[in-house]
Amino acid sequence: MEYGLKKDREMKIIYKVRRLNRLPGSQSGAVLFTALVMMVLMTLLAVTMMGNTAIDEKMAQNSQEQNRAFQAAETGIEMALADVNVLKTSHGFNSDGSRTDGAVVTNSSADGDEQIFSGADGYSVDIEYSSVFLQKTPVARGSGFDSSFANYWFEIQSKATTATGAQSGVALGMFQIGAN
Question: Which of 3, 117, 121, 132 is least buried, going by the fewest C-beta atoms within 10 A?
Answer without folding.
Answer: 3
